[in-house]
Amino acid sequence: MNILIVDDEKIKRVTLREDLEEAGYDAFTASSGDEALELLRKEPFDVVVTDIRMQQMDGIELLKRVKADYPDIYVIIMTAYATVETAVETMKLGAYDYITKPFSSDELLLILDRVKRLKSLEEENRDLRLRLKTDHGYGKLVGESPAMKEVFENIERALSSSLTLLLQGETGTGKDIIASVIHYNGTRKSHPFIKLSCATIPHELIESELFGHEKGAFTGAVRQKKGRFEMADKGTVFLDEADDIPLGLQVKLLRFIDEKTFERVGGTSSMKADVRIIAATKVDLRKKVERGEFREDLYYRLKVFPMTLPLLRERKEDIPLLIDHFLQKTFPPDKRPAIEPDCLDVLIGYHWPGNVRELKHLIERLSLLKVGKSIKLTDLPQEIRLPVLPLSKELIFGKNSFEDLISSTERELITSALQIAGGNKSKAAEILKMKPSTFRDKFKKIESTEIR
Prior knowledge:
The protein has 4 domains: 2-128, Response regulator (Rossmann fold), CATH 3.40.50; 148-310, P-loop containing nucleotide triphosphate hydrolases (Rossmann fold), CATH 3.40.50; 313-385, Orthogonal Bundle (Helicase, Ruva Protein, domain 3); 393-451, Orthogonal Bundle (Arc Repressor Mutant, subunit A). It is flat, with a radius of gyration of 34 Å. The N and C termini lie far apart (88 Å). The chain has helices spanning 10-22, 33-42, 59-69, 84-92, 105-136, 146-159, 175-185, 203-211, 228-231, 247-259, 285-290, 296-302, 319-330, 341-349, 355-368, 382-385, 393-396, 402-420, 425-431, 436-451; strands at 2-6, 26-30, 47-51, 74-79, 97-100, 165-168, 193-197, 212-213, 225-226, 236-240, 261-262, 271-272, 276-281, 305-308, 338-339, 374-375. By secondary structure, it is α/β, with parallel strands linked by helices.
């Protein structure tokens, strides 16, 4: 730590500087308050140790100036005239501590050691806040398309409230990421964020997971357990796959949303929890309501603030940005490959049934393949290079023979490869991982069939 010693008696400040330097601190001196302020403007300091009685500017005035301009600097007051009133005044003005003259350097070193530990703790907290901001900030949401701009606008609206949210979108559209961004940037960010995937918990255990249970409530309940709502008091519960909540439990969830009260399984006393609910679904809940598979009243309670997340194929202009984002996250800077233009064209044109998550997994997969300086078309898996649409029932069960189906699929693959390769047969053969001679033979066969 950098320590600035301020005292108008030369022998005292020089002796103190030598003692602090011997203890491993970087110590500097100033003979007056004005000189101290000049040094503070030029150099960063962690602690100012100042005498209280000095000519021109005393220690009290210097303390006020330091705390006004450099609030993070710790100030320790040295005084030979310590009284209760003096101590109270300096502490009110922001002094960290004071020490009464005469004192040994060991006494001051003990105070500085406390400051050092406190600064270390503050830095850890600052790093944690920065990490939370990085991990849950807007940087995880990539996109400049109109659809994503609408998502960002909705997030901004959601941050200032505690309304129940319903995130709707296919698998892989980022519902979990948006839920965490809303929590960690909203009014409840200093309280718990608890997740529950309703599809992965057996139906008979979801009630216990949400509301907790008492000891002996059912076989295997060997101790009392808090539920997710109780654990998340004043925070947020993210109910992923909310469409999978059993009908019998939906009425209890409805009551909790309305009244913020619940009972643990096997319990009789009513408990309260102040929780914001963010629910997510990959299916159309309205259709489940129409089929009698989801309560209509619960549907409207969850849908207070609905957000529909766009599919990746609906915002193709964001694909290059997402690729660059995942390349930066996956590859070291010195080994980060470029994307060849024809490869990028294929990635933009692909249907992406798994949405952003599928793209992320593709880049991670490519990192394991040890691609060179650029990612080529042949590095992509065949289902992306040459996606084949599912055959219709009419085609499968119609008059076409098995040989006809194979021939039709082969023709589609060869034609698609030629289109991607810009008519270059050798390159098209490479795309299909086929010998050039075999490709040419099959292409001639297709040409002769079409001529007939």
